[in-house]
Amino acid sequence: MNATGDRSALQRRRAQELGVRPEQAAPLIAKEAGLPFSEEPNWHPDPASVAPLAFLSSIHALPLSCDDGVHLATTWAPDASCESWARATLGTKPIWTIVAAPALDSAFASRFGVAAANLEGSGEIIPEETEAEDDAGDDAAAAKLVEGLLTRAAGEGATDIHVEPWGRELAVRMRVDGELEPVPLPANAAALRRSVVARLKVLAKLDLSERRTPQDGRFSAEAGGRRFDIRVSTLPAVHGESVSLRLLETEATPPVLSELGLPSAALNAFSEATTSPHGIVVVTGPTGSGKTTTLAALMRSVMRPGLRAVTVEDPVERELPGAVQVQVRPELGLGFAQVLRSVLRQDPDLILVGEIRDRETADIAVRASLTGHLVLTTLHANDSAGAVERLRDLGVEPFLLASSLRLAASQRLVRKVCPDCSTKSRLSKELLLAAGKALGRTPKEDGLRKGSGCRFCRGGYRGRTAIAEALRASASVRSMIASRASATEIRALGVTEGMVTLPEEALRAAEAGITTLAEAALRCADAHG
Fold first, then answer.
1. Which of 213, 266, 451, 479 has the greatest number of beta carbons closer than 10 A?
2. How many other C-beta atoms are found inside a 10 Å radius of the C-beta of residue 437?
């Protein structure tokens, strides 16, 4: 019999094979098995009255409200042993219905908490709290809860998991499409708060006895049929240790530029800048704005067998076939600047520097770009013109920057309107004027859309896309950089030469129905300070 997480994983894996979402694969799976499919299941209000939680969890099924016998909804056709166990447990042969994996996983979590769907063979949701903290890392219930959290995160497409101590309570939140969402847990999950932290520390090979200082580690895990490299960070807090997990899919194919959803103006500017055999391309934006993904796509577009490509990263987030990837190790004295010096002795043509954080790294990267290397890097700045100012603040000489810069770009990620529940958005004149003030002009109403919310999305949004502005280093822009012009002056020149600003690109995306006006204003209104 398939384990709980594996049954939903089977459906998701089948969906990947077909190139569709699980919601689209489920009807095909039902047809292949000769079973009915329910698009909108009518869940039984009291599933525990139909069958024991241990049984439902083990076969990953929930009862439906029906008058003609026991109907069980599951994500994969039951095998003979599952049929036999169900008949023995229920005293009758159940009627099976196939449902989409996200619908069943969500129903389980909302009724029992995320751990209950992953507790196989236990009549209890979780045991009562024990003070034997030395054995916390071996606690089976904590291990199952962690496994359940990882499975849910993989299924939801979460990038981060935060395990947070709130007094004597345990709170877990996941970041999906840039937004933090609470994860439902069993009623007495607080009893496992120490054990869950200990379990995560054991997996990441951290010191269990050290609770007073932050620690960093990592581990690999498979969840939802996918392989993840998981970075773990602990932080001592008043009520215990807070643990943050960053999920990086190790086998994900690096994207190409055309798959990022970049506006055409920015896409053309990126393509043009990377045709140069030398120079520096800088991508800016806040944490979580997709800079690393854009760099990976740029690398993939430039790399070819005749080029030697080396990356310097912290951390190495995704594998780039054909590139030599180096992880910085500050604790060993191998920071960005130190590794970059060594890289320059490795005969590279293309260099990716994960982030410029200090003067030394900035100086080496710029000088490398002037000596026959194409350098791609990121920087924390508010917009593309701000990247110039930031590099000057780090001590890069204006004349060197003017000679080396090929492109400075800035980007944000905005949530996309769900296509399955998209409707025309009607806003009051006051809201339109307020949005216009925030984004630079009053939007055109005709194409504005919003999502009403459905089973395929999260509050009317599904997925994210990139919004970017790209400042080309034209002769006039380089002249301004060399003369120490301000970011405002450089930005104004860029606009006169055809640069479309972030607020304007966000507004255009809203007018095209890609995102909502509220999301555009939230992510991009402050792009220019």
1. 266
2. 12
Contact between residue 67 and residue 73 where contact means Cβ atoms under 8 Å apart: no
The angle formed by the CA atoms of residues 261, 266 and 267, to the nearest 5 degrees, is 60
Long-range contact set of residues 179-185: C-beta below 8 Å, sequence gap at least 24: 179/415, 179/458, 181/458, 183/109, 183/114, 183/149, 183/152, 184/109, 184/110, 184/113, 184/114, 185/113, 185/114, 185/115, 185/145
CB 302 within 8 A of CB 349: no
Instruction: Tally Cβ neighbours within 10 Å of residue 331.
Output: 8
- In this structure, of 83-92, 197-206, 463-472, the range with the lowest mean pLDDT score is 83-92
Whether pTM exceeds 0.85: no
Beta bridge partners of 231: 218, 246
pLDDT tens, 146-174? 988 998 888 888 999 999 988 778 899 99
Q: How confident is the model at residue 115 (pLDDT cuts 50, 70, 90)?
A: low
Instruction: Say if residues 358 and 267 touch (Cβ distance below 8 Å).
Output: no
Contact status, residue 354 vs residue 313, Cβ threshold 8 Å? yes
What pLDDT does residue 129 have?
41
At 282, the amino acid letter reads V
| Angle, CA 113 vertex, CA 99 and CA 138 arms, to 5° | 115
Q: Measured between alpha carbons, how far is residue 52 from residues 104, 111, 192, 457 in Å?
A: 17, 14, 22, 31
Distance CA 325, CA 422 (A): 42
What's the rounded Cα separation, in Å, for the pair 86 and 51?
9
State pLDDT tens for residues 285-310: 998 899 989 999 999 999 989 999 99
Tokens of residue 33, six digits: 């098995």
Of residues 221, 302, 222, 225, the one with CA closest to residue 257: 302
User: Which DSSP helix (H) or strand (E) runs through 493?
Assistant: helix 487-496
Could you give the CA distance from residue 421 to residue 458 in angstroms, rounded to a whole number? 11
Q: In whole angstroms, what is the distance from residue 295 CA to residue 513 CA?
A: 27
Q: In what helix (H) or strand (E) does residue 337 lie, and over which residues does it extend?
A: helix 336-343
| 474 confidence band (pLDDT: 50, 70, 90) | very high
Closest CA to 104 of 194, 169, 191, 11: 11
pLDDT of 333: 84
117 has a pLDDT exceeding 80:
no
Amino acid occupying residue 191 = A
Burial category of 81 from C-beta neighbours within 10 Å (exposed 0-12, middle 13-18, buried 19 and up): exposed
d(CA 309, CA 60): 46
Write the CB contacts of 225 (distance below 8 Å, at least 6 apart in sequence): 9, 10, 12, 13, 16, 154
Q: Which residues of 126-155 are buried (b: 16+ CB within 10 A; e: fewer)?
A: beeeeeeeeebbebebbbbbbbbbbbbbbb
What share of residues in the chain are helix, strand, coil (percent, to 5)?
40, 25, 35
